Amino acid sequence: MKGMLDFLRADPRLAFYGLFVALGSSFGQTFFISQFGGEIRAEFGLTDGEFGTIYGLGTLLSAAVIVYTGGIVDRVDLRRWTFCLIIACSIACLAMGFVAGPISLFFAIFLLRQTGQGLMSHTMGHSLGRYSWVGRGKAIAFGSYGFPLGESLFPILAVAVIAAFGWRHAWFGLSAGYLILVLPLALLLLRGHDTRYERYKRETAEEDGAALAPAESRRYPTAPLSPDPQRPPRPSRQWRRREVIRDPRFYLVLPGMMAPSFIVTGLLLHGVRIAELKGWSHELWASSIVAYAVGSIPAGLVMGAFVDKNGAARGLVLFLPPLVVSCLILALSDHPFSAPIMMGFMGVSSGLVAVLSIALWVESYGTKYLGEIKALMTAILVFASAAAPPILGWMFDWGWSVAAVSIFCAGYAAIGCGLSLLAGRRYDLRTQNS
């Protein structure tokens, strides 16, 4: 428990800022937008495939744009960035409430995915990955708890609000909530950021002194290991995005990192249809998402402690097996109780990767250009989440059963698991120095 609380004692405002930003990303996440899928399809006469295609195209555009917008946080004061981002989130919710047809739906989904799912999530990882100096893995895990907190609260709330006020008024209310509640609290948590940023600049300047590494270490440069074997290693230079995309290790780990975004987004967006085909109620599916949140919370904590002790690379073998199990449960069982069990295993995988991915980039590539590097990875993950809705939607339109779609997803996760096992050895800086 002492180790768990170290980072909270060191910078509690930053820790809760990360948690709050992750929670604020909920309204651009698939688990929330999917609760409106039935009403949107009915109002505009869309099939599963058509709705999935619109959703995927909006998400795909978000993936293309975030490569550029995500890097801005490296160069802008975090307080100014947060102010502008939350205003943009409010505008996105307002646009969703005024949707009048498929074209405006596409642009509204793009704004929600860009601001909420993309940049708010990106900001959580960037702020905690860059500015946490004590127990970075646990700090990222703590901030990531904002995701399951939103997953446990908002799906059921969305169903209730839609039933009481209609789906459009739900989005109008969210737009006001961003301005009245989210914006003031986020800025309050960033009070005193000047001191934090000055410390970051001093630390970065010291690390830049190691940039001229010996020639033999230029391929995968790492700093010499601390005498403390429990301390995770650090790169001896700060990588730029253009260097990362030339690193063969990056492409080996990529399919596995993309698997949770693809599978979770696809299954959650078409959750209402899955529930119908399984004979489950909409309320059962929405309430089962709580199990997703419950599974992700301890998983993130365990992975955070693991990363701080062993380094991120050694965790690459751990995060996909629960996702394989989740897909197999969905394929093989129609019992209503299988829904929360499946969601729980899916949540474990998501909780593990939420911590692992950020820690891996920090450990392997440094913090100075973390914004542009993480923006690249965020874009790739958003692309994966963009591909899933149309692919799975058209599968359902073509008559694929839930079992067949789930087996397809399990196979992809299993392939990603094998590649992640190979990538772990190549990213393991401890092994390279042994």
Explain what this protein looks like in three dimensions.
There is one protein chain. The protein has 20 helices and no strands. The longest helix is centred in the N-terminal third of the chain and has 30 residues, at 102-131. It has helices spanning 2-10, 12-24, 30-33, 37-44, 48-69, 78-97, 102-131, 136-144, 146-165, 167-189, 193-208, 241-244, 248-269, 271-278, 282-310, 321-332, 338-365, 370-397, 402-427, 429-433. α2 (12-24) runs antiparallel to α7 (102-131), α2 (12-24) runs parallel beside α9 and α9 packs antiparallel against α15. The chain starts with a helix and ends with a helix. It has a single domain (12-200, 241-433), classed as Growth Hormone, Chain: A. It has 434 residues and is mainly α. It is globular.
